[in-house]
Design a protein that fits this description.
By secondary structure, the protein is an all-alpha fold. The protein has helices spanning about 5-35, 45-65, 80-100, 105-110, 115-125, 130-145, 150-165, 175, 180-200, 205-220, 230-250.
């Protein structure tokens, strides 16, 4: 391995250490006393910018930031960015209802305009901005230097899932308590593959995965499939089917559909 490869490997290891340390330490007060520190989820993004500044200076930091505004990709990719996850989660809820489950509370039906403020809240404070500059914009790039897109996605998906572990021990985090930890991590692995597919096909646009992450979380707000007994299972199965189609059509090496 050349010098640059060793440097990337070391920085990748440091990224995960800093990310987990930042978030888990700042999540600890909420786990123990219910006191929320809203900067806790920003571990991935903070770590990415810190390491980028240390190793690449101000120019590298600006370049990373610009990729969060990069919409210079084929417009057709806005279709999966905005519609794929709502379709998967919506179908999961529909299948759960058709299986005989009762319809959960869906505020969106009576107040459809709440989707707009919900979108912006999720974008800025619900995960995407806190995570994607790190998971995809920093870690995924370095993983794909060593491994193909599929293997990189699996590795990142496992670590992404493990990073969420403190949330399973917090009050009010019902969406995490509704699934076993192993099931949640399995879900983040398959979701990670979808994120890589979006990221690689949009020219490594962080904006694309910011929007995709937002729509993924928003889909669960609009269609509360996880509030049903089998909605989570149907969601995993539909994610698996989608991943299989992507791997067949685009291949595991780069997952780029040419």
């Amino acid at each position: 391995m050349n010098g640059q490869g060793r440097l990337d490997g070391r920085n990748l290891f440091l990224f995960f250490i800093l990310t987990f340390a930042w978030s888990w330490i700042l999540w600890l007060p909420e786990v123990l006393w219910g006191f929320r520190l809203y900067l806790a989820p920003f571990g991935p993004t903070v770590s990415a910018f810190v390491l980028t500044y240390i190793n690449e200076g101000l120019s590298g930091t600006k370049a990373l930031l610009r990729r969060g505004l990069d919409f210079r990709f084929k417009r057709v990719w806005f279709v999966p960015i905005f519609l794929l996850m709502p379709t998967i989660v919506g179908l999961s809820l529909l299948l759960a209802i058709l299986s005989g489950e009762s319809v959960p509370s869906m505020p969106f039906l009576s107040q459809p305009f709440i989707v707009i403020p919900a979108f912006f809240y999720i974008f800025f404070l619900g995960g995407p901005l806190a995570e994607e500059f790190g998971w995809r914009g920093y870690a995924l790039d370095r993983l794909q230097i060593r491994y193909n897109a599929f293997i990189s996605s699996i590795i990142l998906g496992i670590l992404w899932g493990l990073w969420h572990l403190p949330l399973f021990f917090m009050k009010g985090q019902d969406i995490y308590r509704s699934v076993p930890i192993w099931g949640f991590i399995l879900g983040t692995v398959f979701l990670s593959i979808l994120f890589t597919w979006i990221y690689n096909n949009t020219g490594r646009s962080i904006l694309a995965v910011l929007l995709f992450h937002t729509m993924s979380n928003l889909a669960h707000f609009i269609f509360p499939a996880m509030a049903t007994e089998f909605g989570g299972l149907y969601s995993v199965l539909l994610n698996v089917a989608t991943v299989i189609i992507i791997l067949i059509v685009c291949g595991a090496k780069r997952m780029i559909c040419e």
